[in-house]
Amino acid sequence: MSAATTGLLAGMALGFAAFFGGFWAFLLVAFLGLVGLVIGRVLQGDLELSDFTRSRDRQ
Questions:
Q1: Each residue of 2-57: pLDDT tens digit?
Q2: Which site in 1, 29, 36, 48 is 20 to 30 Å from 8, CA atoms measured?
Q3: Which residues are CB-contacts of 21 (< 8 A; sequence separation ≥ 6)?
Q4: DSSP string, 1-59
Q5: Measured distance CA(31)–CA(5) in Å, rounded
Q6: According to the model, what pLDDT value does residue 2 have?
Q7: CA distances from 30 to 18, 24, 39 (A)
């Protein structure tokens, strides 16, 4: 699936959530989509959890 198709489906899901569920449903769907994106990237190997937990003072 191309990035444009994925973006279209995500936008439609957020639009339906906003229309039928209101603002809080929109935020919940957006947050869960972000969580799913991060988990998917970690499982694919594109993102490492150590990127989020590493201390700033170490370079």
A1: 788 888 888 889 999 989 999 999 999 889 888 888 888 888 888 787 877 776 66
A2: 48
A3: 28, 29
A4: --HHHHHHHHHHHHHHHHHHH-HHHHHHHHHHHHHHHHHHHHHHTS--THHHHS-SS--
A5: 20
A6: 79
A7: 10, 10, 14
